[in-house]
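At this stage, I needed to go through a protein sequence along with its fold in token form, as given directly below:
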Amino acid sequence: MTKRIFKRAVVLSLTFFAREALRKYKPRIIAVAGSVGKTSTQNAIHTVLRTVYSVRKSEKSFNTEIGVPLTILGLPNAWGNPWRWFVNFLRAADLLIFRARYPRYLILEMGADVPGDIRHIVSWAKPDIAVITRFGEVPVHVEFFKGREELIAEDGLVAECLRRDGLLLVNEDDPDSLAMRGKTKAKSKSFGFTRAADIVASHVQISYGEDGAPAGISCKVDLGGTNAPLRLPGVIGKAQVYATLPALLIGDHLGVNLVSGVEALSAHVPPPGRLKLIEGVKRSTIVDDTYNASPVAAEAALEALKEVKTKGKKIAVLGDMLELGRSSEDEHLRIGKLAGAAADVVVAVGIRARGIARGALTAGLTEKNIFQFESSKEAGKFVEGILAEGDIALVKGSQSMRMERVVEEIMRHPEEKERLLVRQDEEWQKR
């Protein structure tokens, strides 16, 4: 009860300070919503816009009733420390009393964990530009909603609340995202691999280093009759391309031409745990996708694993996907079938992931190449033992499965984990 009251007091205080900051400094707000790809998209937007404008993005995945105000105020999360919250409130008051340098654009990631999350935020932080990324048949967090329709409607509030002179960006390849056009009278544009989109990506290819290991991806981007090559080092997967397209569209809308945008993105460093390539032990390669997991994201990761070439074996290390409600069993089984078709070895981590193991067996993978563990630490030690030169290991799972511990166990330079991996701050390390 005490913790609940304390959290409520923090939320109310932060919301007050954030609303007043918006009223005083009048920044333009870019909202990013959808079930997958929000953080990668907002980071790419930040990379493109910062070449011209003063801009601030959500740190990590600050997309909640606490995270969004913290981004607006430029403050860190104080977690459960009352003294640090007191210091935060003093800094917030200082921002309102005195005149400070403030960004022209705020890129705010908005997530719908439970009903009402986004409704509360957009009631006082109305966007000028909104991006709806992608959903999927079973979106993450659907367990806390009556169904996927209610969850999608919650995300759709960022479109409904757009200013009439605003801009909505939707995914041409995702019917649910595309349907958001009907929720606003603002101008809309689309992105995707479909030719009907306003900005189109095509000819996606994986690049390789001299040692034969994957080094990144490249593609061609077409926007309004102009095309340019886009190179994204250190990552693989179409999901990374999807994240860059809204950034280029927004850049074009705000005066950053396509060539300048792709040049900025060529040096872009995506956030940790999103299909990032990391050197593994024994000259192996890790595809680190450990930030979180949903069926649509797991499917995209396995597609990337299937497409990549390697001299060795492909290993899929997959943890539980949480908050899927009554679809959980079917979706774990389905993802297991995809894993069995994409990988030579499947390592399932967690109780729900037993369905992944069964699915891999159904897909034709032999029992001797399917392994099950209860914890990520156990799985990490096992994978380290079976890795060999030229192998590629995809690691993915929901946040609470702590699949980054698998990556830490098998990465070549664990001393760089704080820079390369997710959930390395002090609060997470205590859990």
About this structure: DSSP finds 17 helices and 15 strands in the chain.
